[in-house]
Amino acid sequence: MKIGIVGLPGSGKTTCFRILSGQEVDHHGPGSQAAVVEVPDERTERIFELCRPQRMVQPETTFVDLLALRSGDGRAAEELELVKVAGDADGFAIVVQCFGELDHRGEPLDPKSDLETVLLEMSLTDLAIVERRLARLERKRGSLETHEQWEQKVLCRCREVLSGGQRLLHEQFTLEEDKLLRGFSLLTMKPLLAVFNVAEGDLEGTVAGESRQFADEQGLGQIALCAELEAEIAQLPADEQAEFLADFDLDKPGRERFIRAAYDLLDVITFFTVNENEVHSWTISGGATAPEAAGKVHSDMQAGFVRAEVVPFAALDEYGSIAACRDAGVMRVEGRDYVVQDGDILQIRFTR
Ligand SMILES: Nc1nc2c(ncn2[C@@H]2O[C@H](COP(=O)(O)OP(=O)(O)OP(=O)(O)O)[C@@H](O)[C@H]2O)c(=O)[nH]1
Ligand SMILES: [Mg+2]
Questions:
Q1: Would residue 303 count as lying in a domain?
Q2: Which of 115, 143, 168, 299 is the most buried (most CB within 10 A)?
Q3: Atom of ligand 1 nearest to the CA of 227
């Protein structure tokens, strides 16, 4: 999974990246940087404890600290950079400045307008991509093949949506159209998480008020956190971290809340496999079937899928071992159509 971090200059992108990656970075120059982050799942540790395999593998997510989006001048180069690095992202986190009095231009803080600007910039970036392609097709007018005529129609529809400042995510496309558009790595086809970066004294995000409502209306996921405070807490030894979090009435570190929100946004669920060697936790899109989950582990397992033996995490937690679950009759045998549930422990049976 890959999430791009975007936002206006000085909104706190790099600070968020530091919380997520645990890396000490100073990122003001051109270019972007990525960190692969191991995503904590307490259940993996519990399974490890109960089943005692040799090792534990947690899923990973890549976060990319991208360039600041700027409106107007100088956009073209940044656009290209953004599409190049972020084209294959599964979603974006938009960091919105809600701390301090003034924004990066020295104007009074206006989170709603900042968020609008970022959304607009993303639509305009897509619009430029669509128009470039349309112009190329237009040049061939008269000699367009049937599939190009179809493409032209699809792109004209996109142009209409985008020039109205809307995103493509909420448009209904057929599978074929969707496949075509994916090839363009359009930014507005991906889900968005608004990260309201609030001041230490405003953890409820009152300053973000209007912009939160706007994010809701736009169908964005959202969280509020104080990036600077979280970054400081993240530097502390583990036992002191808990104390600090409690002091600020935060039940979980920002890193975990951020990642959780991103997973919810992307509709990602976690399933587990366990044998004597390892417990492995995997992420997959919500709605995926058992053979698709098997394919995550190994393509042979998907091709030769026979059945899955399923133990929900809660059952293992209660009965203490897979064998005990089987004896208690809480292990289920599921076929090809089974939709994997968050927390399932799967044993895939397959033929080679
Ligand atoms: N008070 C306060 N300051 C913050 C917070 N988050 C970030 N800052 C400060 O805001 C400044 C910009 O933060 P960065 O994380 O570098 O922002 P950025 O979006 O990466 O900035 P550019 O890459 O230059 O666009 C830094 O001086 C941070 O210390 C916050 O939650 N509260
Ligand atoms: Mg930065």
A1: yes
A2: 115
A3: 31
